[in-house]
Predict the 3D structure of the following.
Amino acid sequence: MTDTLIVPTFDEPATAAAGRKLVIICSKGNLDMAYPGLILGAAALGEGIETHLFFTFWGLDMITTSRMEHLKFTMLGNTAMHLTQAPKMPIPAFMGGLPGMTGMATKMMRKQIADLEVPTVPEMLEQITQMGGHLWACRMSFDMMQLNEADLYEEVEAVISASDFMEISDGAQIIFI
C-alpha cells in the first residue's frame, strides 16, 4: 500500500471559489459570538463560496426574532476582556458579576460595532440571505427551546435534523463557533 501525499496548489486563479462550500455552525447567542460566524459567512459569499449557517443551541437566539436584536455581551468568565487602556491595571474578573456590568459591557460593544459601521445582527442576516446564503435551524435545539417556526427570522429556510445537516454539509469546509 502506497501513501498518497496531497499537496495543495496555491497558484489557482481567483475563480477557484467556484465549487467551494462552507458551513458555519453558530452555537452561541452572545453578541461577541454572533459576529464571527456572520462576518465569515458574508466574506465567503463575497468570494463566491456557497455558504450555509446552521444555528444550534444558544445560537438560535441569533435567528429568534424576539431575541436577535437583544443579544448581550458579558465579561463574566471572559479572560480576554480589556476594559482599561492601562495594561498593568486590569479590571478583576469578579466585577463582571456585579449588577449592571453586562448592560454596560453590551452597550460598550454595541457602540464599538456601530462606530466601525458594522451592521447589526438582523442587518447581517439580511445581507447574507440577499447574497445567497442559507440559514438553517437545528431541530433538536428548536424543540428543546419550545420554539415555533413563527418565532424564527423569516429567511430561515427550515428547521432541520442532524441527518439533514449531514446532507447539506457534504463536501463542505465546516467552522464551529
Remarks:
- The first strand starts at residue 21 and ends at 26.
- The chain has five helices and five strands.
- The mean pLDDT is 86.
- The two ends are 38 Å apart (CA to CA).
